[in-house]
Amino acid sequence: MPRFFRNKQFILVFLIAVALIAAMAYTYDTGRYVTKLESAVGYIFSPVQRVFYKTGKGIFNFFSSIKEIGTLRATNEKLQKEVEKLRKENVRLQELINENKRLKEALNFKTENTELDMKLASIISKNPGNWFNTFNIDIGKSSGIKPGMAVLDEKGNMVGQITAVGDNWSKVLAIIDRDSSVSAVDVRTRDNGIVRGDSSGGLTMIYLPLDAEIIEGDIITTSDMSKFPKGLIIGKVTKVTRDSGSLLKQAIIKPAADFERLEYVFVVTNIKGTGK
Amino acid sequence: MRSAYKYLLIVLLIVLQSTLFRFISFFGVKPDAVFIVVLSFSLLNGSWEAIYLSLFAGLLQDILYNNAIGVVTLPLLIVSYITGLLSKSVFKESSFVAFVFVFLGTILYNLIIMFSMVLMKYEFNFIESFMDIVIIQAIYNSIITAFAYKYLVSFNKYLIKNSSNFFKKM
Asked: Single GO cellular component annotation (chain B) (predicted)?
């Protein structure tokens, strides 16, 4: 072993390793603007990646549409019915909104600003590894993007949050990443919990009290306690479990956003001052 | 300098890896072409090459995609450096040797990533992740290596033969 320590190359590798561990500790999840150098690397890579990503998307869509042809008719019928139902519901909700507004005015309530300011971005690449679920989008600091902003898919479902911002690109941490946790609430029962990812495409809602009335099929949205605007749809409950011995419940949640087919995303530029 | 081709190949593979390759995932696991190429060159050209290439490939990937810089670079550096050191005592140009190195290397590489994830307080089931990701990727990577290694060997020969006199001794 002592011979090893006299080897200059080994010492060099050792020092680099120590420097890398320090870099890891320093850069880990601080929600930061990236350095000039990092920003430049992304600047150079972004256009190339965008082209390749679009190409890959095209190929993928071609093959998956062939696979789906058989089920199209059934899906279409189901969707048609769904549209009808939603249309009716929409009318009813519109009435409720109007009524709500009138009542609020009558009571002199200050209405919260729940309007979302959104910026459109397209995805240019995804994390090449198997451990982390992050992806890059093509807008950054120059478009007013800040770390910690929520990212939604085309239909307004929660996809993730911005973690690092370059000049014209940003890294997004998907909610299905192991490192992601979002404060969430059950729309129907108002049970609060934290939604975490498992990196294999699933979500788990934890810290649910034992008396929570959460059941299968409930919609989960962001709660008012996080830094994100409230009411962003996260997903649907598929299973509720209870750890024996623990005083809490857990719920398995199917994410509403389709992470395989994401192409465009919206970045919500209003962010609350509270939270991290 | 023709050795620039090596770096260009790595850049190209990083781009492909993050864009096209996710469409060829197998049981939800993607192969790691960048890892295969860096490890192959380390095996062929020794430990200095291992240091240069792993720093180049690792830092680029970390800057572009990962939350913590070093997550990929550190395991890549360790695995390819060990490969570079061991390469002196094996028959380097055999595809089978490369197959074994990539198989074991992928496992070590992922174990170091998992270890750093533990340090970063990630929560995950160790055994499950090991079986679902690491073993599958090790098999996937090493099978690709078995087919691709001879092309990398001839590419490497081409680079050495045509490099300027200063590098001829390599």
From this structure: plasma membrane
Here the tokens at position B5 are: 């081709």
Single-letter code of the amino acid located at A241: T
- Residues B45-91 have pLDDT tens digits of 989 999 999 999 999 999 888 888 889 999 999 999 999 999 988 88
pLDDT, tens digit, for every residue of A20-35? 999 888 887 667 888 8
**How far is it, in rounded angstroms, from Cα A142 to Cα A39?**
12
Query: What is the interface pTM, i.e. ipTM, of the complex?
Result: 0.83
The nearest CA of chain A is from the CA of B79 a distance in Å of: 12
Say which residues have a Cβ less than 8 Å from residue A173's Cβ, sequence separation at least 6: A133, A134, A160, A161, A162, A163, A179, A180, B67
* B 104-163 near A (Cβ less than 8 A): 110, 113-114, 116-117, 120, 122-124, 132-133, 137
Residues B100, B167: Cα–Cα separation, whole Å: 29
In angstroms, the CA B156 to CA B93 distance is: 11
Residue B159 tokens read as 């680079």
Give the position of tokens 């380097």: B92
Q: How far apart are CA A159 and CA A154, in angstroms?
A: 10
Spatial separation of the C-alpha atoms in residues A32 and A258, rounded to whole Å: 27
Topology at the third CATH level for domain A118-268? Thrombin, subunit H (2.40.10)
Which one of A11, A24, A35 makes the best mutation probe of the B interface by having the most chain B beta carbons within 10 Å?
A: A24
